[in-house]
Specification:
310 residues; alpha/beta; Spore Coat Polysaccharide Biosynthesis Protein SpsA, Chain A; two-stranded antiparallel ribbon; 11 helices; globular
């Protein structure tokens, strides 16, 4: 049984009963190994209580299912820096008290915004945006688009998904907070992953949508989160059939980039989303859904074997 093919093979559904049984066994085996690797890394990484006040705050949406991944991704970035970055975690609604205690244990300089607290505050802040409020309640990924700018402390906002794993300190990403204030920068996706093709969106809305915007790693000016336009788009009949599509949040990120005063660009090629990236030659790798199993079985394994935890 090949646990982790190289390069990583994106997950696909099996076509036969035998194939489905084999895939189930493979995934169960992977689940056990992934859990072991996460636990091993979490307890080997250093805990930093010395906050780097000069470092930019980085937001992250987290859930109970992947909270260990979120902790590890943040701890590794701190380890590569040698100090604690100010992380701001946004609870999707599944984080419990025990998980919060673990976050505080491993990342004492971080802040967790619990969903129940956020809901009360956001309800008031979005009182004039009923469609955005409804979108936020129905789509958990919308918190990246709504809550992150509402809680942002600075004019430049940074975000990373919990499945982004760094192998080198991301100097270009960190510099993007201060050196290119005229640009909104995103990691480049493998292909457009919007609710429909860009031309259809442009025909329906008049917005020219940039190519291959991925909302997993970015630095964006706070002023470019245009809630008035977002509210108007959510009123359009065109988007009604896409309200349950998980790609809608990323689609709106691309559309907001298309109308922003700031220039939109991709981060350097080393930050691109790619299934076949070699960790040894990469700044980071975004272990998106189809290769999620590789976060531990490729990424963390590489980090352990190459002793990057010092």
């Amino acid at each position: 049984m090949i646990i982790t093919p190289s390069p990583l093979t994106p997950l696909v559904s099996a076509k036969t009963i035998t194939g489905r049984i084999a895939l189930r066994i493979l995934n169960e085996t992977r689940f056990i190994l992934r859990k072991r690797l996460r636990q091993k890394v979490m307890h080997r990484l250093p805990v930093y209580s010395n906050l780097d006040i000069s470092a930019p705050a980085i937001h992250m949406l987290i859930c109970k299912r992947d909270f260990e991944m979120a902790i590890i991704s943040a701890m590794i970035l701190n380890c590569l820096k040698g100090k604690a970055h100010p992380f701001i975690f946004h609870d999707d609604g599944s984080i419990d008290d025990k998980t919060e205690e673990l976050l505080n244990q491993f990342l004492p300089c971080s802040q967790l915004i619990r969903r129940v607290q956020a809901d009360k505050i956001v309800k008031e802040k979005l009182s004039n945006y009923p469609n955005i409020s409804a979108f936020r309640q129905s789509q958990v990924l919308s918190l990246k688009l709504i809550d992150v700018p509402l809680w942002a402390r600075n004019a430049r906002i940074g975000y990373m998904d919990s499945d982004v794993l760094f192998f080198q300190y991301p100097s270009e990403y960190i510099r993007a907070f201060t050196e290119s204030p005229e640009k909104n920068q995103f990691n480049r996706d493998i292909k457009d992953a919007y609710v429909t093709d860009r031309l259809a969106i442009e025909n329906a809305t008049g917005v020219t949508v940039p190519q291959k915007i991925n909302s997993g790693l970015w630095v964006v000016n706070k002023t470019d989160f245009n809630f008035d336009m977002l509210e108007s788009w959510l009123k359009l009949p065109f988007f009604k059939s896409y309200l349950s599509d998980y790609r809608l949040e990323q689609t709106f990120f691309a559309m907001l980039s298309g109308i922003a005063v700031s220039e939109t660009s991709h981060l350097p090629a080393g930050y691109d989303v790619a299934f076949s990236k070699n960790p040894g030659k990469s700044i980071c790798k975004h272990y998106v859904g189809k290769i999620r199993y590789g976060y531990e079985l490729e990424g963390l394994k590489f980090i352990i074997e190459n002793d990057l935890l010092k």
